[in-house]
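Recall that a protein's primary structure is simply its ordered list of amino acids. Everything else, from secondary elements to tertiary packing, is in principle encoded there. The following example makes that idea concrete.
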Amino acid sequence: MRTLAIIEESWPIRGSFTISRGAKREAQIVVAQISEGGYSGRGECVPYGRYGETIASVRLQIEALTSRTEAGMNRADLQAACPAGAARNALDCALWDLEAKQASSSVWRLAGLPPPRACVTAYTLSLDTPEAMARAAANATEFPVLKLKLGAQAIVESIEAVHRASPGAKLILDANEAWDLRLLEEVSPRLKELNVVLIEQPLPAGMDELLAGREWPVPLCADESCHEIEGLAFLKERYGLINIKLDKTGGLTGALALARAAKEMGFGIMVGCMVSTSLAMAPAMLLAGLADYVDLDGPLLLQRDREGGLRCEPGGVLHPPGPALWG
């Protein structure tokens, strides 16, 4: 007999996590746990208000699939039964985990992937004053790649302050849709000399058309504009890279399909995450080998992580968790 449990959890963040849309002090997550024959598989998701998701709405989505899940729904069925998003992510990853345990195998083998290996992650600095972001950068000099959350104010000043505090770090800028075309044109010429290597989602997703046919000194990466394969053709003349997050693609199944399609179309790939525990990072780590940039620092921003989670060494080197956690 198969059963589905839905668990709501809150994990305190170290300090606060601030982006252009607001700040939070805890990561609120939903875990789906599917048990069958003495085995249990888990999947963790983070409901995101930007896409109209809440803890309550995601729980309702998962609950609506309880009977089908307990009747034996597989991952292929799930793709048709639930739209891409946090709820499908939790169920999809739980099904992968359960299948691997039942087969006495691993998810990477079942998915036809190489085993996950250590990789270098970006480390995120919250949006703040230039002085505060410089202090945060000075405390994170062991990370060779820093990701700066930025708004529409003091953009260059913040980048310059971080660059002075950590001159050897490569910088990724993430505006979370807070800029307009004028701002992007204004700041772009200065960025290469400040070691900026990538700009994530500078404009609101609805303004992507303005980027068509343009060339920029630093490559642009689509985040909020990229969810599933169907949108890739539109993004091709506007972005050089896409950010793949399992909470957007609806799990590892959708993420793998998106990554492979994006590679075929010539996109670079960033593997990203929400602020969450290593249970959410474990499936995303399987995509790291396909990625140009890895941004899986979610657990590093928490006050504590799950037992047996990711291990981070100096140099920002992330080691995948063991199979006891997931996969």
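The chain has a mean pLDDT of 96. The CA atoms of residues 173 and 199 lie 5 Å apart.
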